[in-house]
Amino acid sequence: MKNISNYVNENKDRFLNELIDLLKIPSISADSAYKKDVIHTSEVVKTRLEEAGCDHVEICETAGYPIVYGEKIIDKNLPTILVYGHYDVQPPDPLNLWNSPPFEPVIKKTEIHPDGAIFARGACDDKGQMYMHVKAMELMTKTNQLPCNVKFMIEGEEEVGSSNLAIFVKNNQEKLKNDVILISDTGMIAKDVPSITTGLRGLSYVEVEVTGPNRDLHSGLYGGAVANPINVLTKMIASLHDENNHITIPGFYDKVEELSKEERAEMAKAPFSLEAYKKSLDIDAVYGEAGYTTNERNSIRPTLDVNGIWGGYTGEGAKTVIASQAFAKISMRLVPNQDWEEITQLFKKHFESIAPKGVTVKVTPHHGGQGYVTPIDSIGYKAASKAYFDTFGKTPIPQRSGGSIPIVALFEQELKSKTILMGFGLDSDAIHSPNEHFGLFNYYKGIETIPLFYKYFTELSK
Amino acid sequence: MKNISNYVNENKDRFLNELIDLLKIPSISADSAYKKDVIHTSEVVKTRLEEAGCDHVEICETAGYPIVYGEKIIDKNLPTILVYGHYDVQPPDPLNLWNSPPFEPVIKKTEIHPDGAIFARGACDDKGQMYMHVKAMELMTKTNQLPCNVKFMIEGEEEVGSSNLAIFVKNNQEKLKNDVILISDTGMIAKDVPSITTGLRGLSYVEVEVTGPNRDLHSGLYGGAVANPINVLTKMIASLHDENNHITIPGFYDKVEELSKEERAEMAKAPFSLEAYKKSLDIDAVYGEAGYTTNERNSIRPTLDVNGIWGGYTGEGAKTVIASQAFAKISMRLVPNQDWEEITQLFKKHFESIAPKGVTVKVTPHHGGQGYVTPIDSIGYKAASKAYFDTFGKTPIPQRSGGSIPIVALFEQELKSKTILMGFGLDSDAIHSPNEHFGLFNYYKGIETIPLFYKYFTELSK
Question: Domains (ranges, CATH) in chain A?
Answer without folding.
Answer: 4-200+371-460 (3.40.630.10), 202-256+302-369 (3.30.70.360)
